[in-house]
Amino acid sequence: MHATTVAVDLAKDVFQVATANRAGRIIERKRLTRSQFERFVDALPAGAEVVMEACGTAHYWGRRCHARGHHVRLLPVQYVQPYVRRNKTDRTDTDALLEAARCEGIQPVPVKTPEQQALQVLHRVRTQWQETRTARLNTLRGMLREHGMPIALGARTVLRKVPLVLEDADNSLPEHVRYALALVYEEVQVLEHRVKDLDRQLARVAAADPVAQRLLQMLTHRQGFGDVLAEGVKIAAERLGGKAKESAIYTMQGASPRGHDHRGRWDEMLDTCTGSTGTLESGVPVHVAELGLPTRINPFNGVEVATQVAGIRGRRHFEDSLGICIFTARTRMENLCRALSAATGWYYTVDEGMRTGRRTAAVFRAIRLRCGIGIDRERPSIRYGSTPHDGPAKGQAVSEQWEQMVDTWYEKVGYDRKTGKPRPQTLKDLGLDWLARDLWGKKA
């Protein structure tokens, strides 16, 4: 430990400080106001080590301490927490910081520059506006449903249909409700414009950032480190090893999941890891009741999740075969089949549509296996399959149910668990006898 190590429990107005000597013995404790803490930092001997939890204001104080010639270590909150003894107080927090500072295995958080914090503000504001927008859209759907006017999932669907409902003077919607929902809809429109403005601002920041532009150039031309990153997250993490491999998010097939945290969406994680397209293959469950599936499941029950993912398998393949964007096809399969029948003169049922999609899925699976991507890669990376520490999925460990989920999925889709191949009978039921002979030979 440094000759003078200072642990600081940051706060809005009152700061708890504990100073330890080289042996780790606490030699001084202080409780300081903001102005007193500023003078305390200025008076510290140059080269002191200042330890703080990596919270919002820590980066400002970290830069201030750096400017005074001190060494700053910002420790992740979740790694300091285990060192807190007895009840959590400001005093015990500083003691925990000093104990955690001794652990060389705890990687400190780099102190952010003002520019980095400014960019973080843009992202945080954008995220908050998106969350507010989602909440308002759910309000619109919920209140209209209460009055017998259900609207399907999907932001675009809600934004398109709500004005039609509000403008329809012949429906049974009470005037007070119509007025209130019109205000909510206006708020959503304002949030839409604000998010788009921030997107443009972020694009301008990236275009003006020489580091971002240089990194893009290195990636496109596969120069230096860009050659590593161009191979994708999985290969780059494996080549770098260490913390990179432990922290990277990918499927063992080599695909990178979508931008949000899938640890709270086990259906998307399972679909991505078992799929053959490098992303969600079965898609998001929409109007699942017409496929004989329950409309609500426990999102953290592996068997229920796997049953649903397997049950909707083929829907997205059918949508893709129509040559339309899936974001415009978030309706009932029955409507898609009716549109196809009207356009072609055929008579297409939901069962036939799902059968078409599942045929495509089986062919994709055969191609994937032929390319050497076997069942041993059907799992998430360490970080991707980790247990969330906060949020709605806090404490829900997908790793504990993963094997059961995959076993259930294989059984429901009719694939062989040991080889990953669609079973011969499954292929014959889909009219793919030729593929059954190709994959299974005489066993077919």
* Gap between N and C termini: 69 Å
Q: Which topology of the largest domain does CATH recognise?
A: Aldehyde Ferredoxin Oxidoreductase Protein, subunit A, domain 3
- What would you call the structural class? alpha/beta
Q: Strand arrangement, largest sheet?
A: 3-2-1-4-5
Major sheet: size, sense and barrel closure?
Answer: 5 strands, mixed
* CATH top level label of the largest domain: Mainly Alpha
Would you count the extended β strands for me? 5
Structure notes:
- Helices cover 52% and strands 7% of the residues.
- By secondary structure, the chain is an alpha/beta fold.
- The chain folds into three domains: 97 residues, Nucleotidyltransferase, domain 5, CATH 3.30.420.40; 95 residues; 177 residues, Orthogonal Bundle (Aldehyde Ferredoxin Oxidoreductase Protein, subunit A, domain 3), CATH 1.10.599.
- It has a five-stranded mixed beta sheet, with helices on both faces.
- Strand 4, helix 2 and strand 5 form a beta-alpha-beta unit.
- The longest helix has 34 residues.
- The protein is globular.
